[in-house]
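>> received
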Amino acid sequence: MKLPKRAIQHISESESYKLFQSKIPSSWIIREATERDYGIDCYIELVNDDNELTGELVLVQLKSRQKIPWTKDNTYKINGIDISTSNYWFKFAVPVFIFVADLELKELYFSSVGYQIKRNFREFAKQDKFGYKLNKRNLFEGKDGVFSFKFDYYYESDRPQFENELLFFLTNLIHFRQFQSEHSFRDYHLGIEDIDLIFFESMHRNFRFLSVYFNLDNTIPKLSEIKKRSREKFEDNYYELYEHDLAEWMEKFQLLTKEIIIGLKSFLKGEMDYWLITKPTVYNYIINLNPDDEY
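>> returned
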């Protein structure tokens, strides 16, 4: 008597999902997608170290290989994904990641869709075939794997804010330079007027975000800490900040301005085709910036 046989593909899918579940931190929430025909198998909600729900979501496409055939440079190209699926992934406001399970070695690897597309945008723009490179260093295993994954995740999830902060930096670069110069040598006991305080807070926020995004060493304290120090130094508290508080950090801001420009130039070169095709004016302007110019 003949009985139905379970397809090898279905067995592999089950094995890969079990492996995926075993590697993902137990505090994270995995929810299966009700429809799998559109390239999303499940999504993850990240939970922070205090087990608090963050609302931070990851969309997941899960694939499996009996054994991943790594090349000599420790990479593996994932081919066969329809360009329409890649287009769909790229439009999501939520980061999409491809996870690949190595069933033989019981290992799990990940690749950021947005990062891959923007770094290989000319190939993607042809709208023909587009493959995703898996790197052996992106092993999702233990604390190191979680840290590496979250680094890539925030790189993508913060991308819309990054592009806004980038434009804010460029359109205010001349004003930043002027402000830094003007507030370097004023009378230390003068209070900072509201309009200058608003500008300083905006510059501080902008520089802080970009330095974190580019992994730059930023020794300028948080704004709350600068204000706290000011209250301790100036007892009248009539102003939130005084010229002394700004002058103390203006040299650091000037140095950080140069480092951010260098970081921007390096970053855009890595995504050259993406920027040349989508935002050529921004690309050309940044590439021609000289960090040592006074603007």
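>> Residues 159-287 form one domain.
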